[in-house]
Design goal:
single chain, about 20% helix
Length: about 375
């Protein structure tokens, strides 16, 4: 018996003793049958009766006060499924490329990275990228804060280009994501300045005077493809955006530089500079350094697909405990159940979530699935 159940049990026993005294005073003839009118030790059979009743009522009150009761879990899991799940570890990783050896851009889709070994068992955590990332033959070695002759603040971005790229017109630079790598005050100020407070862009190519660049920065993190974790079929995406913002604000600290696809690049270009003239001067109390803008970054989450241990169904049971296959290290938890397939000697059968509303009947009389499953979170 755990501590919580014992507290409920003792509370019920106290109630029975106190209520028993009041009942004995109000109805002494009936209380005598249960030996409630006499102080001291009660009849042992009556005591066992009270203990059994207190245990049952304590378990019932514990279930009613549970964090995830069955009465509300079904509704919450249907409308806001992510509220019932533990939020996995989140981070932003930067991919370092050897741009000197790259001849073209490469796009990485649905890739995973491993953390450094942690803990006594040297566990390496698996992180999955939340969106695709395109690696260009570019590097951003220097970002600095400069000033125009008239005193306006300028953010200068110096890019280095890969020398092996023969035709830069084949490189898609229409959307170049940048991560605002700074503390929250600096990152928020940078985000506001780059998305709402830009007065002009200048482009400087090697051996040429700078010229006006028709470009702009757009905020990232609000598209459907930018979700940190999968969205429920019936969940409202706005709630997920709010939850992502308050749990991992760094996801929204990305901006995309748009407009470089219209530039005519010279052959074998080694680098270029972009001057971003701000409409308002950069605050003097906020630091600015080269690491504040980073290239080739992507959010990652500690979620990865994994099979569970096989279950042997029994007609005498209606709930089964799921455990991740081959991993019993105490660090792995099941976040969601995506697919269930049963197999027999006659073939296999796929299960669908009960909340998907693809029930047999009406227009789905012949096409609806025959088997469903429902998952619920239970305190371990």
């Amino acid at each position: 018996m755990d501590d919580l159940t014992q507290r409920y049990y003792e509370a019920e026993m106290r109630y029975l003793r106190e209520a028993g005294k009041e009942f004995a005073q109000a109805y002494p003839d009936r209380a005598a049958m249960l030996n409630l009118d006499k102080p001291g030790a009660r009849d042992p059979y009556v005591e066992r009766l009270f203990e059994g009743f207190a245990f049952l009522m304590g378990r019932l009150h514990e279930k009613l006060d549970d964090d995830l009761p069955e009465l509300t879990e079904g509704l919450v899991s249907l409308l806001w499924p992510h509220y019932l799940r533990t939020i996995p570890s989140l981070s932003v990783v930067e991919l370092t490329t050897d741009h000197q050896q790259m001849k073209q851009s490469d796009t990485l889709k649905e890739f995973q990275v491993l953390s450094r070994p942690i803990g006594e068992r040297r566990t390496r955590c698996v992180y999955s990228a939340t969106r695709d990332i395109t690696l260009h033959p570019l590097a951003l070695p220097d970002v600095s804060l400069q000033y125009e002759p008239d005193g306006r603040s300028v953010i200068r971005l110096r890019f280095e280009c890969g020398p092996l790229v023969g035709d830069w017109s084949q490189i898609d630079l229409s959307r170049l994501p940048l991560y605002l790598n700074a503390d929250s005050p600096v990152a928020c100020a940078l985000h506001r300045a780059l998305t709402l407070g830009i007065q002009q862009f200048w482009l400087r190519l090697p051996g040429q005077e700078r010229r006006v660049l028709d470009a702009h920065f757009s905020p990232m993190g609000f598209d459907d493809d930018d979700r940190l974790w999968p969205k429920g079929e019936s969940a409202f995406s706005g709630y997920q955006l709010l939850l992502e913002y308050f749990t991992f604000r760094e996801k929204f600290m990305f901006v995309a530089l748009n407009g470089l696809e219209n530039v005519i690049w010279p052959e074998r270009i080694t680098g270029f500079e972009i001057d971003v003239v701000l409409a308002e001067n950069w605050p003097h109390d906020l630091p600015f350094n080269t690491d504040n803008l980073r290239l080739h970054c992507v959010p990652v989450i500690n979620l990865f697909p994994l099979e569970a241990d096989p279950l042997h169904l029994s007609p005498l049971e209606n709930e089964f405990l799921l455990r991740p296959m081959r991993i019993q290290d105490g660090h792995t938890e099941i976040y969601s159940v995506d697919n269930i397939i049963s197999s027999r000697h006659t073939g296999s059968q796929a299960y669908v979530p009960f909340s998907s509303f693809r029930h047999r009947g009406g227009m789905l009389r012949h096409d609806a699935p025959e088997r469903y499953y429902h998952t619920r979170v239970k305190r371990g």
